[in-house]
Amino acid sequence: MNEDKNKRDSIQMSMKGCQTNNGFVQNEDIPEQEPGSRDTPQSNAVNIPAPEDPYLKAVRPYAGMPKEVVFQFSGQARYRVPREILFWLTVVSVFLLIGATIAIIAISPKCLDWWQAGPMYQIYPRSFKDSDKDGNGDLKGIQEKLDYITALHVKTIWISSFYKSSLKDFRYGVEDFQEVDPIFGTMKDFENLVAAIHDKGLKLIIDFIPNHTSDKHPWFQSSRMRSGKYTDYYIWHNCSHENGVTIPPNNWLSVYGNSSWHFDEVREQCYFHQFLKEQPDLNFRNPAVQEEIKEIIQFWLLKGVDGFSFDAVKFLLEAKDLRNEIQVNTSQIPDTVTHYSELYHDFTTTQVGMHDIIRDFRQTMNQYSREPGRYRFMGTEASAESIERTMMYYGLPFIQEADFPFNNYFTTLDSLSGHTVYEVITSWMENMPEGKWPNWMTGGPEATRLTSRLGNQYINTMNMLLFTLPGTPITYYGEEIGMRDISITNFNESYDTSTLLSKSPMQWDNSSNAGFSEGNHTWLPTNSDYLTVNVEVQNTEPSSALRLYQDLSLLHARELVLNRGWFCLLRVDSHSVVYTRELDGIDKVFIVVLNFGESSTLLNLQEVISGLPTKLRIRLSTNSASKGSEVDTHAISLEKGEGLILEHSMTTLLHHQAALRDRCFVSNRACYSSSLDILYSLC
Amino acid sequence: MDSEKKIQLKRELGYFWGVNFLIINIIGAGIFVSPKGVLEYSCMNVGVSLCIWAACAVLSMTSSLCFAEIGIAFPYSGAHYYFIKRCFGSSIAFLRLWTSLFTSAGVVASQALLLAEYGIQPFYPSCSAPNLPKKCLALAALWIVGILNSRGVKELSWLQTVSTVLKMGILGFISLCGVFMLVRGKKENVRRLENAFDAEFPEISQIIEAVFQGYFAFSGGGCFTYVAGELKKPNKTIPRCIFTALPLITAVYLLANISYVTVLTPREIISSAAVAVTWTDRVIPGLAWIVPFAISASLFSNLVINVLESARVLYIASEQGQLPLMFSTLNVHSSPFVAVLLNISMGSIAIVLTNLIQLINYLYFAISIWTLLSLIGILKLRYQEPNLHRPYKVFLPFLFIAMAISLCLVLIPLVKSPKMHYIYVLLFLLSGLLFYVPLIHYKVKLVWFEKLTCYLQLLFNICIPDASDEQMSEVVN
């Protein structure tokens, strides 16, 4: 090595003179330096054994050395060792950095998917916005109002059924699962709507009703002709039919009353219908039917739909042996049993195998979920089920099913108190399988609107509850401005009028038809309160329900604590419910205090949480005047329907306290490190 | 160590290396992620968008050839800097250097972060990945690039080959699948191309916008000016490389775009966050997760080359006396170590303080000005020094086309969104003179700096390069 260098030195030496450098550092500027310190004779002796080169001996290191000079000195330990150390330090830090990256990825908790990250907004499309003056809302109308929805900080839009259907009720009786009903627009409108929704960064889920079709559906028409594979698409059974009187195969009843069997004159058999006779049930024991349904699912997923709400899934299967269901009141004469509630529906709902079918749907949807950020959501509607049965839709630890069954228990409450609200919350949180994600609805097309059901004092509290509970908040259109049911009873439409009351046109402004339609009439009358309860008015009013809704939604979106923090239910009485939201690593704790009682109440928060300061700041209040002010924690007075979100910084979080452990819940446990700005799961 | 090895930037890179270099330079993450710009501005008209891609290829060919003239006439590393100095004088050249000092750090940092993002995002399927691991990985990647770069150009050859094979492999695969599907002729696949021009026809302004979107995808064709000093027989190699690589890239781009539209609808392409991922998910569903990693890996070589290029500029600037001597020193692998170190360090700072990248982004505007100036320089030199030895002369209309495009690139942002920050960019640009006047014009010398230079030379074992044969011959001439 040294000899090599030496040889090269002598070869290159002659060229040295040719080196030009125009820089401001000139070769001849040899900096003054401590003599001897750089030029150790020892190294010379080692490196340059040849005495024939006396020129080198005189050389000192200088700025702009050529290699002959540099190599003479740079081999010395004082340069070589730091050089090696620096090099290896770099190498080690590269490995450390890669290691750190892997470590952070490894300890990162599963991140919240889009359906967990923000609220869902359910739209009944016929009543949201009419764009073509025919008095019926449509898809283009929804597209027009996307800015409004964005301003609510909603993440997911959920559009109820808009399939081609006879005009009776679009939720049921679908004539073509792959077609948009003309009153809502065309498939092109739908595609545009999907594109517009995705452009705004929102997601779209739609209803899907696999249980039955309309009796005008081509499948049914073929089935009653016994043509080919369609013969067994529906549930047919022999029954006797004489003089217009049918003797059904068994005592099963339809949801709307009377026998669920109907005699078909063409096929001369009875078909089974869980709902109306115009809605024959598909035969899900037929694999061909399951395939058809999967194809429909794929059809919509390919259109870009981000998920489904599967409706009425508990009705998918019925007992094969057609056993009679048991009467609730055994002494009742069997012939007089005509109401759905008079039987126990052990053989027509939630049959063995029903969950397998849904899991199969999930598998189909998973094939379209692989692209990052394109997970397809599955929700199931399971109304009027016991909590245990509802929880079955969450799937089993190793078998994925619905992402969540919709939690409509709040929509069934007819009166409020601290206790009833507490019941609903705890029954869901305690029964929910570990690691699953809760959700909360305050309204829906099938439920009476909140204001009509409970009174308009509670609209703000319920919205506050919705956004501060852990999980996905789901809002039915109009609930954000406190719309109420319409009170008119003589409809043109003859069918099940009670469910139409909560489907009145959205109240946009105080022009005619509340801004819903520029047509002469609307399919349902607009609520008479639209002059005061509408989007335009509430947008200008700082104390309106809409403004609070937006504030709450924004808070939910911004605060990690509300998004994925712990939820500790601390106290309940007939009036108030008190709970906190907290997250390890963030010392900000939200204390939520809500009064659901019939009257005002006084609450001593010091008794609930020890070590509170006497004053706490109000982050948000249902009473907009008190936002940002402070309350006395010894005596918080809450009006009827008043709710507060208090902000407090606590060092020891409540879920660490042994006494509260079983009253605290978290879905995806995570801790936050503020110094590193990451979430981690090892805590 | 070979005793005959000279320490200098040697002419040892040939045709194959050059083609690889050009391909890597031009194909970044764009074609995998966002070929949607062209499609969007051509009103989702598939036929028009394909035509625009082809047109962009021709346009970028013109400007590549202009820079080829520079690189061939002045076959030095960092030739475009040298060229500006020659044409417009020392002070303008210094400002050019001053901007590239910052922009190259910004480019390097944002590219490293992009690489890290593609590498990490697959682990966060439904939300955006946190910043910390991104920064860690970006730093690690950048430092590896630094180490590789200080091992000399030759060492990088295998990496370049691998990377080119990877890039062309993915794109080739996408293209072939598209061709296969077209040949098989399933109705849903062929339909969109049969009726390619049926959709709405875009307006002129949209077409212009689409052309610029496509033009960016081809940018980087002038990169030979960075390494002209290291190419064997540059006057032959450069044109040959350009005429090989650009048609190849054009073909692959067109085929890949055709393949995208055979599988996806224009709307799906536009709404997709990463088209290649969506495409793979449709064609071979099991492999979609690989695509982001492949993009990440292919970006690595872009990073390597970017560091290489910006080090060359610092190197020649130092040789020309506009930067301290130590930037033109080479280590035993003939790599301008200090220049690489400076670039990596500035890049690292920009990665750590991510906000800096946003500031630097404003400076990209200045790059278009320099491109325009270089092109003007070609014209100027043709008239001033008609007898200069030019083995390759670009066809004059090409020069005018290239000038028109870069003029548009300067003017369009100014006209479209006249913002204050263009004035700040200008002020920043001129602030370079604060350094130029004392240090270069008046040649103020700092004693401590020379001590530092001396010490660093010994510490890093770097020396000023040996005189090359070329320089020797120049002296003789």
What's the short version?
By secondary structure, chain A is of the alpha/beta class. Chain A is built from 20 helices and 30 strands.
Helix/strand order of chain B, N-terminal first? HHHHHHHHHHHHHHHHHHHHH
Strand content of chain B: under 5%
Total number of beta strands of chain A: 30
Rg of chain B, alpha carbons: 23 Å
Q: How widely separated are the two ends of chain B? A: 33 Å
Which geometry of chain B do the CA atoms define? Answer: globular
Strand content of chain A: 15-25%
Task: Give the overall pLDDT of chain B as a whole number.
Answer: 84
Q: Percent helix among the residues of chain B?
A: over 70%
Query: Regarding CATH, which class of the largest domain in chain A?
Result: Alpha Beta
How many helical stretches of chain A? 20
- When the domains of chain B are counted, the total is 1
Q: Terminal Cα separation of chain A, in Å?
A: 56 Å
Give the low-pLDDT segments of chain B.
472-477
Number of helices of chain B: 21
Report the radius of gyration of chain A as a whole number of Å: 36 Å
CATH-level-2 architecture of chain B = Up-down Bundle
Write the layout of secondary structure elements.
The complex is a heterodimer of chains A (683) and B (477).
Chain A (H helix, E strand, L loop, with lengths): L1 H12 L27 H7 L6 H4 L9 H8 L2 H31 L6 H4 L2 E4 L15 H6 L1 H6 L4 E4 L3 E3 L8 E7 L6 H13 L3 E6 L9 H7 L11 E2 L2 E3 L2 E3 L13 E4 L4 E4 L14 H16 L4 E4 L15 E2 L15 E2 L9 H13 L10 E4 L6 H5 L3 E2 L2 E2 L3 E2 L12 H14 L7 E3 L8 H5 L4 H10 L3 E5 L58 H6 L4 H14 L1 H5 L1 E7 L3 E8 L2 E10 L5 E3 L1 H4 L6 E7 L8 E3 L3 E3 L4 E7 L14 E2 L5 E3 L4 E3 L3
Parallel strand pairs in A: 1-2, 1-19, 2-5, 5-11, 11-14, 14-17, 18-19
Antiparallel strand pairs in A: 3-4, 6-10, 7-8, 9-10, 12-13, 15-16, 20-21, 20-28, 21-22, 22-27, 23-26, 24-25, 24-27, 29-30
Chain B lengths: L14 H12 L3 H4 L2 H6 L4 H28 L5 H10 L1 H31 L10 H19 L3 H32 L2 H8 L9 H15 L5 H4 L6 H30 L2 H6 L3 H9 L6 H30 L17 H16 L2 H30 L11 H21 L4 H21 L5 H14 L8 H8 L1
Helix pairs in contact in B: 1-8, 1-12, 4-10, 4-12, 4-18, 5-6, 5-17, 6-7, 6-15, 6-16, 6-17, 6-19, 7-15, 7-16, 8-12, 8-15, 9-12, 15-16, 17-18, 17-19
